[in-house]
Amino acid sequence: MDFVGAVIRNKIKELGQLWKSSENHVNVSIDVLNSWDTLISEWAEDESMPLIIRKGSLTRNNALLRAIFHLI
Do 65 and 48 meet the contact criterion of CB atoms below 8 Å apart? Predict the structure, then answer.
């Protein structure tokens, strides 16, 4: 089922194109993106580091700590 529709989808696409060509658009380098990906991957793999997540089924401002899962 299409909840958005063609008109809204086209407006979203138009907004994206305007943002991409805007002088306010932030262009992040590939090196910076790769650095963040590496940092997040290392953090997620290190069980000694706290990792706070929010499940989609929880309401806003609710978080689960990775340590809780180790106790269960």
Answer: no
Q: Distance between CA 66 and CA 55 in Å, rounded?
A: 12
CA gap 56, 60 in Å, rounded? 9
Helix or strand run (H / E) with residue 51: none
Which amino acid would we find at residue 9? R
pLDDT band at 69 (very low <50, low <70, confident <90, very high): very low
The one-letter amino acid at 11:
K
H or E stretch covering 64: strand 64-65
pLDDT in tens, 2-49: 888 999 999 999 999 999 899 988 888 999 999 999 998 898 888 888
Token code pair at residue 61: 């401002």
